[in-house]
Amino acid sequence: EIVLTQSPATLSLSPGERATLSCRASQSVSSYLAWYQQKPGQAPRLLIYDASNRATGIPVRFSGSGSGTDFTLTISSLEPEDFAVYYCQHRSDWPRTWTFGRGTKVEIK
Amino acid sequence: QVQLVESGGGVVQPGRSLRLSCEASGFIFSSYGMRWVRQAPGKGLEWVAAIWYDETNKYYADSVKGRFTISRDNSKNTLFLQMNSLRAEDTAVYYCARDRYQKYFDYWGQGIMVTVSS
Lengths: 109, 118
Known about the structure:
The structure holds 2 protein chains of 2 kinds. By secondary structure, chain A is mostly beta strands. Chain A has no helices and 11 strands. Chain A has strands spanning 4-7, 10-13, 19-25, 34-38, 45-49, 53-54, 62-67, 70-75, 85-92, 97-100, 104-108. In chain B, strands 2, 4, 5, 6, 9, 10 and 11 form a 7-stranded mixed beta sheet that branches. A 4-stranded antiparallel beta sheet of chain B has the order 1-3-8-7, with no helix packed on it. Chain B is an all-beta fold. In chain B, strand 9 (92-100) and strand 10 (104-108) form a beta hairpin.
């Protein structure tokens, strides 16, 4: 079973700064990786799929990169509404399971 | 616009059953796979179950296999999660989510709380 490890657990930044979040897979997942944003009391929201494709309505300041085992979510300039928890996610073929990382919290410094 | 609305949550004793529903609107429900994902208080996201658009395939997390059953009624645009033999560790917010490309979750409901406690 593929394990997704996210780092850091917490990222303390100021508005306007660049955020770089990491997700590492225990084995290659090709480019089949997604990123979600979750704010307190809200459902998650799909940001990025297939490692680098922005979902509908997602601002261009969010970008994803990587393939194989190492992936990055970058927020080019943090807006106040971007402070949230971010999860990476992958679907394994065998067994057929959907796995999330443990999340990275982006908090206001 | 796509809307997913969960219902059926609440407080239940260990060992008892509960049935969650998720009513969908704003898209052709019968054309999409659907998923259940849960989140224990203060914890991360955990996928629970998946069902194909035509019910030909169903998958479950090991933590719920044999106790939970996912199903759907395409005539009523509704997804279900039958939860039996509930345990304290099943306490969580349960989200229904729409499938994208059989890999991801592109729309989510607002979530419904299930508390298993005596």
